[in-house]
Automatic annotation (TrEMBL):
SUPFAM superfamilies named in the record: Periplasmic binding protein-like II (SSF53850)
Protein name, as recorded: Sugar ABC transporter substrate-binding protein
UniProt signal peptide: 1-19
Organism, scientific name: Rhodococcus tibetensis
Keyword Signal among record annotations: yes
Pfam family, one: SBP_bac_1
Matches recorded under InterPro entries: Bact_solute-bd_prot1, SBP
Lineage, opening ranks: Bacteria, Bacillati, Actinomycetota, Actinomycetes, Mycobacteriales
Keywords: Signal
Amino acid sequence: MLVAGAGALCLTLSGCAGAGSLGASDQTITIAMVSNSQMQDAQKLASQFEEENPDIDLKFVTLSENQARAKITASTATGGGEFDVVMISNYETPQWAKYGWLKNLSEYAEATEGYDEADFIPTLRESLSYEGNMYSVPFYGESSFLMYRKDLFEQAGITLSEKPTWTEVAAAAKQLDSEDMAGICLRGKPGWGELLAPLDTVINTFGGRWFDEDWNAQLTSPEVERAVQFYVDLVREYGQPGAATSGFGECATQLAQGQVAMWYDSTSAVSTLEDPASSAVVGKIGYAPAPIEVKDNSGWLYSWSLGIPESSENPDAAWKFISWMTDKEYIRTVGEDLGWERVPPGSRLSTYEIPEYKEASAAYGPLTLEAIENATPEAPTVQPVPYTGVQFLAIPEFQDLGTRVSQQISAAIAGQQTVPEALAQAQQYAEVVGATYREER
């Protein structure tokens, strides 16, 4: 059942204890997760874990993406011990490992027979590591690509290049936009992990950057202004209604329900779009690499992964759950029990060798793997920069800086201010952060 409270959802399978629990167990593991479809599938299958581990009860706390980031960060940073397992990403993991907030999971993985840490896609494994050890392990990995209605493109006589440009995408959106169908869906919802995820890749490929090599803010540069103006104009003119409040979930729903012709976003979206139970466009979607402009190869690199806070009182039981949820066998269980289109993508190389998955993911699987393997977080921009990360900057200040900048740009999408006005304010925020780094040099 779903129990609402304090802006979060505690999704539990038997009250706030685990599935199949007939009484008090030895340990209760509290797991903080983002409420995406793959995580909901894990909760559906959690009874299998508890049957195999009757001394462990599972308590899930599921939150929206922005809520999860704030609550998990606050709990882990203060050592509150509220959660035994936290869903984090390749943004938090190396930083938190450096601060001593997370358990070293390579030590657990090496002691777990058959877990095969080396099977994780190398770019993801490296992005979740600190000083050679993994401090979280990927539940799924993602890059970004363009999703489009093949049937509508064919009817309109539109053909995309093998590596489409944003200029091509804008022209297609204009041609396909109508009263009944938006030409494209793009995130406009504030949040460093919402609007800024796709927008940062646009800034990068248009030749923009947040800071130059000396940490001077560059958000009012011609390259950044051109990229942001392009994005805002595209979604305002040919995008979905209510774009300023649309995030990943809203765009997924609109494309799945046949309300938009294109969507640029995470490769993980296929779990919704290709699921017959939730999508009206199964088999109608084409997939293309992340659109480019000046810089080639603009797809992001991201992973929702699972870590154990140092403050957890039950780290061994927490690892049992994590290793179950990120093991090769779990991937096969999802495919066999729920459908191969719902397999968590982009974490293990072996996933792409499973015959059933290769068949089910023929349209998007190879492109997803290629995008993840070719992502360039160490060199995300055309000009040199002092930071790493494609759709985020791997610095602690980016959670606050990115969120505040996104609020300004979302306001421009809503028509409340111009892009130059939004970027002028964003520049001031960035200058404060840049000054801190210059002082440290």
